[in-house]
Every structure is written in structure tokens, then in C-alpha cells.
Amino acid sequence: MKTLIVAGLLACASPLAAAQAADTVTIPAPGRGIEAPGPGQIIPMQRDEFQQFAGAYNLANGQTLYLRRVDKRYFARVDDWTEHQIVAVGANEFVALDRQLSMRIVLQPYGLVDGELHVAVPAGRTAQSPTAQPELMHIAFR
After folding, report:
1. Alpha-carbon span 86 to 31, nearest angstrom
2. How confident is residue 111, by pLDDT bands cut at 50, 70 and 90?
3. Which letter does DSSP use for residue 39 in this model?
4. Is residue 10 part of a domain?
């Protein structure tokens, strides 16, 4: 009887442990995908306001997100993928104008960062993507 109870507990616990260990979740591309911001949603951001976000961020899946400013425009890219022009749509939220990327970055004390990144992964960049269609991935910051 104890063996059955222990086996049942292990069977229930193993999917939970696997779910906790996975920091990167691949989400099938929804019908609408990432929405482009409307004119009233874009928040003007000054150079010094963006400067706190500029730099490189380690992602939970081992990739790196880069944010930079060129003149009065802001850009984001993951590793060596295509760079996307981004705009602020919230205090810590950014969206790419081409609807290929959205992110929320929460800067915490002592240099810690929290948040998530939604990015349309170029076709052929993931082992799970046998089709030519890009996939939408949800990646947490580390």
C-alpha cells in the first residue's frame, strides 16, 4: 500500500518539478501575436530615462538581450538576431514597432533585474521549429 502511495506522489510531483525547472517556455504564435502600440499608448522617453535600461541582459535560456540608443531612437535585439526599434508603452514596458518583440523590465536594487521578453523567433532558430513560420517565445530575465 505504501508503495502505491509513494508511486502516486512521485507521478504527481515529477511534472511539477519539470515545470519549475523550465525557465523558458515556448508559446505557439497566437492569432494576433504582439500588438503594435497605438498613438496614444507610446510614452515619450528622454535619453536619461532610457539610459537606465540600456545595456545587456542575461536571459533565462542563456541568450542575451541588448538594448541601445541611436540618436533619439531605441533598439533591442537578442544575440545576433535582427535589431528592432522599440518604444515605451509603460513605465517598464517596451514594444517593437514591427510587432516582433515586447518586454517588461523591472530594475531592482543591487543590480538585479526581473521581467520577461516575448520575441518572435526567426524561422530555423529553434530545434522545435521545423516550419518556416516564426514562433513566439516567452523568456524570463535571469
Report:
1. 22
2. confident
3. T
4. no
